[in-house]
Amino acid sequence: MMNEENLRYAEFSLEYGTQAKALFEGKTTEITDAEARRQIESIMILGTANLTPEKQTRYNNLAGWMQANYSTAMAVMPDGRELPLDPDLTALMATSRDYLELKNAWKGWYEAAGRPIKDSYEEFVALSNEASKADGFNDTGEYWRSWYEEVDLEGVTEQLWIDLKPLYEELHAFVRRKLYDVYGPNYINLKGPIPAHLLGNMWAQQWGNVYDLVEPYPGKAGVDATPGMLDQGYDALKMFEVSEEFFTSLGLLNMTQEFWNFSMITKPADRDVVCHASAWDFYNQKDFRIKMCTVVNMEDLITVHHEMGHIQYFQQYAHQPIPFRGGANPGFHEAVGDTLALSVSTPKHLLEINLLDSVETDTEADINYLMSQAMDKIAFLPFGYMIDKWRWRVFDGATDKANYQSTWDDLRLQYQGIVPPVERDNTLDFDPGAKFHIPANTPYIRYFVSFVIQFQFYEAMCLEAGHQGELYKCDFYNSKEAGAKLAAMLQMGSSKPWPEAMQAIVGSNKMSTASLRRYFQPLTDWLHAQNVANGETVGWPEDTWRPMGFASPDGAPAFLEQYNSTSEVKLFEAVDAEWNYNVNINDQTQAASEAAGIALSNFQAEQAVGAKLFEPSEITDTNLRRQVEKISVVGEGALSDEDLAALSKVNGDMQTAYSTATYNGKPLDPDLTATMASSRNYNELRDTWKGWRDASGKLMREDFKTYVDLQNEVAVLNGFDDMGAFWRAAYETPNIEQQFEAVWQEMLPLYEQLHAFVRRRLYQQYGDKVINLKGPIPAHLLGNMWAQDWLNVYNLVEPYAGYTRPDATAGLQQQGWTAEKMFHEADDFFGNMGLIRAPQAFWDKTMFTKPTDRDVVCHASAWDFYNRQDFRIKMCTEINQQDFVTIHHELGHIQYYLQYMDQPTVFRDGANPGFHEAVGDTLALSVGTLDHLYKLDLIGKPDENPQSDINYLMSVALDKIAFIPFGYLMDKWRWDVFSGRSAKTNLNQAWWDYRVKYQGVTPPLSRTEEDFDPGAKFHIPNNVPYIRYFVSVVVQFQFYEALCGASGHVGDLYKCDFNGSTEAGKMFGDMLKLGSSVTWEDALEKMTGTREMSSASLVKYFQPLLDFLTEQNTKNNEVIGWPDYSWEPPTNTIQNEDGTVSLDNSGNMTKSSSMVLLLVAIQAVLKWAFE
Prior knowledge:
Elements: H1 2-24, H2 34-43, H3 53-72, E1 74-76, E2 82-84, H4 85-95, H5 99-113, H6 118-134, H7 140-146, H8 153-183, E3 194-195, H9 211-214, H10 226-231, H11 236-249, H12 257-262, E4 278-281, E5 288-291, H13 298-316, H14 330-344, H15 347-352, H16 363-395, H17 404-416, E6 418-419, H18 445-464, H19 480-490, H20 498-506, H21 514-533, H22 556-582, H23 587-612, H24 622-631, H25 641-659, E7 662-663, E8 666-667, H26 668-678, H27 682-695, H28 701-717, H29 723-728, H30 736-766, E9 777-778, H31 794-797, H32 809-814, H33 819-832, H34 840-845, E10 861-864, E11 871-874, H35 881-899, H36 913-927, H37 930-935, H38 946-959, H39 964-979, H40 987-999, E12 1001-1002, H41 1027-1047, H42 1062-1072, H43 1080-1088, H44 1096-1115, E13 1133-1135, E14 1141-1143, H45 1151-1170
Parallel strand pairs: 3-6, 9-12
Antiparallel strand pairs: 1-2, 4-5, 7-8, 10-11, 13-14
Helix pairs in contact: 1-3, 3-6, 4-5, 6-7, 8-16, 8-21, 11-13, 13-14, 14-18, 16-17, 16-18, 16-21, 18-19, 18-21, 19-20, 22-23, 23-25, 25-28, 26-27, 30-44, 33-35, 35-36, 36-41, 38-44, 39-40, 39-41, 41-42, 41-44, 42-43
GO molecular function, one term: metallopeptidase activity
Family: Belongs to the peptidase M2 family.
Pfam family, one: Peptidase_M2
């Protein structure tokens, strides 16, 4: 029936148009009556009446099919629900804050509404162009533009947009930040476009529905009439009556009776309808209607005023000849109702009609109001502009069907700064068709024009109404003068060129953005200030960014295949350059290492961007999903090139400062390390302790502050609050901090008993002047530069002298063991368990000892070159038991590398960082048993007595138990620094607060904030997280007990040596092969049967020693703990020949401490001189 009516109208147009053309074609300039000439020119344009009846039928069928598809389209949700646009999808898009739900709704609608009509639209365009060409136009776009009677409408509208773009971009930046706060960095890029589905509207054309997320001043009374409407029982009819009353208050016309009889103001329940609100003129001067599925809310109240504005225009120009029954230009028609709605939506007006209880009148409330207006008006501008820019390109052939989608996406990105949430297919997708005006063939530039000129109309009417003050506060309700001004323009219809109509109401014949900009000026200023203060990027320079979930999960396998093949090469290059620097420290190798590190970071950042395009929850294969999640962590590559270079530089500088530091010309390894291990001279130890810190940590304090800032920026860009949170995320356990603390509390009693026993023995060695039996221990007396393990003071604390001592150092040295022999013996241990032996490349390329011709990083470390062939260790090996154990530790890393080398590169890591550290140490527990050392002929035959057992357990405890609090506090301190809980002005004090609290150790002399003692520990300047070592100490005993069980060991746990047990080797290898392909809980459970970190195995191992320590400490009335925590050791010390320390009260202090009191003495002398 619709097609028949369209055909009849076409016949009518053709008949009269043909007559007009026959009479006047080429002669219209001879018609002297301007209005008659305009009518004739209008009648001569036949439009689709130019088409043959068959083509007209096809054109109408296509138009009808496209509109019917739009009206009946349903989005299919993942749960099977089928949702229509109105009201379901519209409500969901407005109210949901669930990213994936919004994405699925968006995707479902665009596929249902747009895709089916793509082919039809191409044919429709061809027929439309054919009709337009018959009227003398190049294409339909040119025909549409002719309605504006502008020689260069495209140039005029572009200039209007250029004027408005700065305001839009300020709004865009502000809203983007607020959405970032809600959705996070996976879904919002603060320098990129906004995903189109997050703005509260299916088309992101207006953003008012997310106002709650962006409200400038929460808590201020909002301008929302909806609650008042609901409280007062508004329905659709009441909303229309209120709107009519506004028009009549201006002296404008009532709606006709036909309007009330025939309008569709609610959605009927018995049939499908096109719900999109629209106004209709039936051209009989009395029948005017609105079609609308009205919902009782403020948004629809404004829409009612908009549509009634069309009706008012119809009525006002109803007396005009048919060709003049239209807006002065199409934008005029759209502007009329919106002009009145600007007045209707003011707080002043809503208060007057009792839809608001009160109105706040202050700057904050005003900014809130202007923001709510901008979310509709300013947000709409680029969308209103780009739709017809797209269609004009389609009509003129610049965009063919193959590029419909990509051109649409490009324009939305260029003008709106938005991107689709899912990848679009140029062959299948047709997103323009999901917007009503495309299938309905309704030109859209009118709305852009309307949003500009409505502010011109509004300002003119406000002036006519006598308004004074800020423009945005104007309400011309009841102003007959304003109404008369408007009516005079409306009555002209299109009988005059639009500039004359514009002149009639605003006093100017030009479209201008000045009124709009004046209206929003307070908000513009506020937004600019906020964006500057927040360091926002205005615009979207990172326009290639796309949100997580943009890519189809079907593309994940191909992406991962490409990543794994490429990443091996990139990782090798970076590791190789870092190795070269570590084994030959100079400016060239440092520069090469930094460059390779930056290249790797950039590669990982690029790959992370690709991985982030996948939504992990949409990938059903758990292995693939886990790979994608791990790759998507950008890491340092998230930094700008400038910041990345700065971070690389500061890391390199700190590493170099540490690695090249010396005291009295002596490096840390082996010289200073040997001094700290073997000297028992209190003053020498203190001087060495201080000298190392002055030469290393103190020099990097300022660099460390820069490092913290840059690392925190890395963390934030990766979606974490700070770098501490980023590091903890590696454990994939939300409450990991609480787990660490719980495990520490379980082990604390054992540590405190050991601390009290060792303190007593140091008291016996050094005397009461420098050891307080109720206080912390001076940190330089425990045989290690950092007091992290105490094995080197075993000779001072040995429980039972004369019994077997578990120290293989003498045997190693007396038998002439070399570093290489120590490594081969350790490798045999792995091989004898059926584990993988180190490959030949390992023996060819490992650095076993410190070279004499160059500086190197001596800190022992194991290296995976990611080519499944090259694995190395770098170590300045000394011939002693400690290094023998360290070799097993590092070969444990190598074994892990070998076991998981066939995993995808992203899984070539420990199940958590602590697992990697635990592997070699687990085997070292077996290696260090008395029986095993005896088998190697490194110690005498062990005595089978409890005294030898206690000696052995003490030696292990001095390494393992003594380390636990240090392993815990290192990263607790860093986490505090990263989070800001510890201020940068208080770095050293915070460090020592934790060392006293957790370790019960104190510095041997006063420290200040000019010092930076944390930097004297390798892992600080080298950016190595440390909590892994704490975890390692715990889980290695769990591993050890499990392997002992597999080997068939019976008896005391600490006596277990599973050397040669292939059963234990298989259990271990099976877990190691997993790498990080599963969570650490899964890996732990596979080997131990439990998913929890627990100190139970550790306590079980040390239970005989704990019993001994408790007995001894009770017997000696030791104070457990260090209640005199603020005690500091004196500095005026004298080393006695018997090893004890006395105090020099004569003023002749040791050189290292004399400077501390020299200033005091000078001050005293000066004071005496002036008295």
